[in-house]
């Protein structure tokens, strides 16, 4: 039996912007985007400014996916990204991996430049402009 693990990120109101950014960086597309408005979560506790925020969204890129949502203030908080990293292994080679790395790093902070590490291949780490930590690798 096969298993699939996926990443699900919770944002503080910027999920749609982040999903579009990731689709562009990874060469994918936003395949699902559901809003709070009209959903069972659209009730008296949901601020009017959150009705068009993302209740659920998905980016699909080359068979992989990353999912995200906005977390309304009434449900806690989103956008607290620490204690993990999203890892992407680019199988199309080093040049493509470098392009993905550079795209994700735009407006963010490189924490380890994309280069050959002591264990081989190529590897780099960054925190994107939304505060999400990434590790990018290639053979």
Describe this structure in words.
- With 139 residues, this protein is of the alpha/beta class.
- The protein folds into two domains: 1-80, 2,3-Dihydroxybiphenyl 1,2-Dioxygenase, domain 1 (Roll), CATH 3.10.180.10; 81-139, 2,3-Dihydroxybiphenyl 1,2-Dioxygenase, domain 1 (Roll).
- The protein has two helices and eight strands; from the N terminus they run E-H-E-E-E-E-H-E-E-E.
- The chain has helices spanning 15-26, 94-105; strands at residues 7-11, 29-35, 54-61, 64-70, 86-89, 109-115, 122-127, 133-138.
- A four-stranded mixed sheet has the order 1-4-3-2, covered by helices on one side. The chain has a four-stranded mixed sheet with strand order 5-8-7-6, covered by helices on one side.
- A hairpin with a 6-residue loop joins strand 6 and strand 7 (122-127).
- Helix 1 packs antiparallel against helix 2.
- The chain is elongated.
- The chain starts with 6 loop residues before the first strand and ends with a strand.
- The mean pLDDT is 93.
Overview features:
2 helices; 139 residues; 2 domains; 2,3-Dihydroxybiphenyl 1,2-Dioxygenase, domain 1; alpha/beta; single chain; elongated; four-stranded mixed β-sheet; 8 strands
In a few lines, what is going on in this structure?
The chain has 2 domains: about 1-80, Roll (2,3-Dihydroxybiphenyl 1,2-Dioxygenase, domain 1); about 80-139, Roll (2,3-Dihydroxybiphenyl 1,2-Dioxygenase, domain 1), CATH 3.10.180. Helices cover about 15% and strands about 35% of the residues.
